[in-house]
Amino acid sequence: MTHPYDSDDLTWMRRALALAQTVMYTTAPNPRVGCVIVRDGRVLGEGATQPPGGPHAEVGALRDAQARGESVAGATVYVTLEPCSHFGRTPPCVDALLAARPARVVVALGDPNPLVNGRGLARLREAGIAVTTGVCRDEALAINAGFMSRMSRGLPWTWLKMATSLDGRSALHNGVSQWITGPEARADGHRWRARSCVVLTGIGTVLKDDPQLTVRSVATPRQPRRAVVDGRFELPEDARLIDGGEVIVFTARADAAKAARLAARNVRVVELPGQEPHRVDLPAMMRWFAAEQFNEVHVEAGAGLSGALVAAGCIDELLVYLAPMLLGEAAGLVKLPLLERLEAAPRYEFIDAERVGADLRVRARVADHWRELMRRVELPTLS
Amino acid sequence: MTHPYDSDDLTWMRRALALAQTVMYTTAPNPRVGCVIVRDGRVLGEGATQPPGGPHAEVGALRDAQARGESVAGATVYVTLEPCSHFGRTPPCVDALLAARPARVVVALGDPNPLVNGRGLARLREAGIAVTTGVCRDEALAINAGFMSRMSRGLPWTWLKMATSLDGRSALHNGVSQWITGPEARADGHRWRARSCVVLTGIGTVLKDDPQLTVRSVATPRQPRRAVVDGRFELPEDARLIDGGEVIVFTARADAAKAARLAARNVRVVELPGQEPHRVDLPAMMRWFAAEQFNEVHVEAGAGLSGALVAAGCIDELLVYLAPMLLGEAAGLVKLPLLERLEAAPRYEFIDAERVGADLRVRARVADHWRELMRRVELPTLS
After folding, report:
1. Which residues hold NADP(+) (chains A, B) (predicted)?
2. Does domain B155-366 have CATH number 3.40.430.10?
3. Which of A176, A325, A342 sits opposite B347 (nearest CB)?
4. Which chain B residue shows the shortest CA-CA distance from A333?
């Protein structure tokens, strides 16, 4: 049985979520977790997941309380994800919690990691600690959609970033596209790059724009990896993105000599041929990402790859920056198979719309993907 | 000198604005005005503009106070527009206010009507009544942008309504467009039709869709007029919009016999030839609307007329319903002259973005048009 929660629980869980938000760029492949320990409306300690190998949020919060000279006995622990109960790179957080003897633990979501999945909470309950679940579960899932998706679906959580005029144009007829959106929107786009595990583009964009695909407009201690869908293995060996950081090239058929030269420069070549000649198997690429512990994929590509990913069901969210202008006849955003009926169009549900500088950031997600994810991470009923 | 205002003033002015909002569909060609009379935090009376010929908001509020047995002497009157000081269809509101002897009058905006423009406030001040101006002026201008624009610029305030997928498509390649947006968005679109003085479309839409262009999804005691831009005078005499209500057809050259037949059915034919053959002079059409006391023009047209109005500088606002779907290659929203540089694109500023059912309503306006309007309706400094 789960205990009911009140508005104080919401307040403290939001604080724990805010702590998780502070480590968005640094915990991968682990989830971002925040933890606050409270007694009588007073914070005893707080923590957030440290980079891989470092302490998890719960241990950080317990140590923080200790450093402040506070005993956690009888307190309430708010944590955005079920405490782990297995030995990974660090000992189980549940053991540390049991030793500290809080009266109650409130969690937002269960850990879909099959090594945890309800076991952490079961051990707390067996020790007589009251457990409440489901507080702020939507917000908690949004912060870790990638980790949750990888653990529960064997897929990363993938968003497609687009910058467009109000009439859906990404460039003029002559190719000019810099800049449709303003500096604030471009910086916001880099924040989404920074939280991702990999920035994915197509060979067309590499050949046309020669992008670096790095995070530049915001400070981050860790660069996401870069990946290119390159069916014919056309990647120029002098492309700017080959800069020493890890790059992955997905191709339908690799040239061994070129692959070897690229490997020496930290470019990993992955052969994933699709059904059609010179095409990469995009769903297989997504499964590959999950198997390789990539949680979140940030796609920034031309109309061809963007449309192919949408049509293949590989996109979970749209991240659209709308510029307040009209461009008329010009390049479109996504190339899709010709539709005969509106019912056949890829559909989304809006998540939010927010002004970013002079532009509008609109987020939308595939409702079924989100619902499936939520269903999979719901905690098992304990008897 | 104008008196400062405080947060109570904001609260009461918002109530007056809410009253003005209740008469959005019924006051044209007069402005929508709300009035609240307050003493010691208590409402003594309130009113909103009645249909043309009926009492204005101030007189309505004074009568309401009288009916409640309240004296207005020494009270504060909040009114969203400067009280009129001239005889129109009704006697001047300023005279009624002077007789009631309030201590203070707070107004949001000056009346740009050259017959009023500051004179109403000057007379109040001369009588020793304190006057405060500028409270909630943006909201007040938004409610009466059309009236203000007609009085100060000799132009209506014109918005272009569009329904589109997230990638800027208004129909599939085969013409299917019903329905990209959901029933809530369509009903909201009818609310904008209802507040307008005229719903304007192009002959292409009439020939393709044979629309009625009436307000149906919301209740209104008054239907806006309908207008068609029809350069070659191709309007079919069995078009559904010829239904007895007033219709205006703008054409480059009318056929006298057909015009006479249409006139008998309440269709007014207006010849306004433009520079190019078979084209209507769109800016002249806008001036015609203002001269004929049309405050607000609601445009719902295909890509051709929409683009021509944008390119001619006739559009003040965009009213865009974004559906959470992608359509790929399909019909665009606006046909514009080919652009070589992004700097040449028509630009707007976002006003708001709001969920309407499953869709997103995004409003944007031409910043210069709005600023010019605000500048023109600012009250003259009184010495």
Report:
1. 163, 179, 205, 209, 302-308
2. yes
3. A325
4. B167
